[in-house]
Structures are given as C-alpha cells and as structure tokens.
UniProtKB/TrEMBL annotation:
This is ABC transporter permease. It comes from Sphingobacterium humi. InterPro entries: ABC-2_transporter_component, ABC2_TM, ABC2_TM_bact-type. Residues 146-372 form the ABC transmembrane type-2 domain. Belongs to the ABC-2 integral membrane protein family. One of its GO terms (cellular component) is plasma membrane. One of its GO terms (molecular function) is ABC-type transporter activity. It comes from the Bacteria. It is found in: Cell membrane. The chain crosses the membrane at residues 20-40, 179-202, 223-250, 262-281, 293-311, 349-367.
Amino acid sequence: MRTLIFLLKKEFKQIFRNKALLPIIFIAPIMQLIILPLAADFEIKNINISFVDHDRSSFSQQLYQKIVGSGYFKAISYGSSYQDAMQHIEKEESDIILEIPEGFERQLIRENKQDLFVAINAINGVKAGLGGSYLNQIIANYNQDIRAEWGLIKGNPQQAGLQVSSYFWFNPHMNYQVFMVPAILVLLVTMISTYMCALNIVKEKEIGTIEQINVTPIKKYQFILGKLIPFWLIGIFIFTIGLFGIGYLIYGIVPLGNLLTLYAYLSLYLIAMLGLGLLISTVSNTQQQAMSVAFFFIMIFMLMSGLFTSIDSMPNWAKAIAYCSPVTYFIDVIRMLVLKGSTFNDIKVHFAITAGFAVLLNVWALYKYKKTS
C-alpha cells in the first residue's frame, strides 16, 4: 500500500508539472461542453425559400405570411417566374421553391381543392427532408384554418374529428440541449480518460523511465494502479464539473435520478475506458502511435454511439458494432438517469455489460503489459 501511495504521489506531481497538459485536461473539456451543445442542434431553421406566385390573391398572401412567420423559413424571392426561382436553387441561394398556380383562390373556393408545387434542393438530404416536412405541415395547418373559417362563415361548422393532446415527457419544452449535453459530457470524459492514460504510459517508454521502473521491485498491479487511479479521479472530477458546473448553471439541467447510481456507473465506466487506454499503450511505442490508435476507436465510439443518429435506424451490422462500444451504454444510462430519473433496476443490464468491458479490457491490458526484472 505504501508503494502505491508513493507511485500516486509521483503521478500527480508529473501531471501537474506538465503546464501544457493541464489546459487539455481541465480547461478544454469545459470550453467544449459550453460550445458544442450550442452547435449540435438538429433543429433546422432559416430554410431559404423562393415563392412563385401566379395568383397574387389574398389567399396566396396569407399562405406566404404563414410560411415566413413560422420562423423556419426565410424568403429569398417572391415573383412569378419559375425560371428565376430555379436560378436561386442553382446558385445555392435557395433550398425550396413553392409555386402557387394561377386561379389558386378561385379554384379553392369553387372546387374546394387546389394543388401546389414544391421543388426541394435535396443535395443536403437531412435539410431537404426536414424542410419539406415543415412546409407540408404549415400548408396542412393553413388548409385546416381555411376550412374552419368557411364552416363558421356558412354557419355550419365542421364536425370535429379526433383531437390529440400530446405531452412530452422528460423534456417537456423539447430543448435539444437537455438531450445533447449529457451525451457530449460522456464523450469528453471518454476522450480525456482514454487519451491521457494511453499517452502517459507511452511517454514513459519514450523517455526511458519505464525501463527503470521495470527493474525495481514494484509489482505489475502496483504500477498499473498508479497509472490508472489519477486519471480515474480526474475523470470523475471533470464529469462533476461538467454536470453540475456547466449542465446545471448554464443549461439548467437537474439530474432526476439517484446520484449514487450515476457515480457508481461512472466509476465502472472509467475503469473500462482506462483499461482501453492501458491496452493501447501496451501496443504503442510512441505517443504518435498511441494517439492514432486512440483516435481510431474514439471516432467509432462517437459516430456509432447513438449520439448523432439513432441506433434503431442503423443496419444490423452497424448495430452490432454500436453495441460493442461502452460509450453506447453510458450515453443511454446518463440520459435515463439524468432525464428520466431511472433506478438501478432499469440500468442493471447496462451495468453488467460495462462490468464485462472493464474486466475484459483490463485483463487483456495486464496480459499484454510485460514487466521485466
């Protein structure tokens, strides 16, 4: 135990003496957690739209005002030439063309129906899909408003059909940052723990001090614990600052679940990710090699963890890869505990799987690490 304490003192001194490393560990994650949730927003606004109005009637003007006033669309042009509107599409100045035919109001009143033409620039598939959905919904609401108004004018209001009242549980205001901040915090903690642990051990190889340690009576497990515990504590510290310092003070996120359960899972998760960092360090001889290998895994964890795209929408082979990542389970767990207030019984399967990752990665790393005496 005394040997381990000396090793921990040595590691903490080595970490805090490195003036270039401290901002990366403590300042960079805080800045990233403040900035990234503001940018990682899938709600698309300011969609550029060109109007081609051949009717120039009060009804077409009402439709124009309703679309522009929704806050999702920005009118680029309003004219009567489809070719002019198409030029805006070709110059990437516009995303959607809405063409209102001649006789729009007259046909709508007489025949109780009319067609509109919508052309969407689909180079950006996500923006095109959402923009088209927004526009269709606005037009449908406009159509519903007109029918309701006609029913009142004629003194024969339409019979009400099914009425649906929706309540958004766990995120009632549909605030996307509440959904993204916990997941981004998981990625930041993952990057810090994995990168720093891998680079710290490889640095010992580069400067030759690991050879000196190898010939000492220090046991393998003591050396490994001396390397893992400092970054385990740093990971918990960064997570705490991110959740309560940034999440609560800036974004107003209040964890609904049990904090002991959350921190128990965090502790286990960090052991697993530090084991990955240790494993990377055993197969790398330089810090550049360690960074390249760690970057490879971090990118896969980031893109296939369910942070940006739903795992349910992935093909089966991609789902298999996603569920081989510890990050996938922690993102699911932190959202369940922070937003839903889930209990340990709800995450016990995630807990068991993460424990399996922790045992596998650390045992593998210990097996790969060779200590010569």
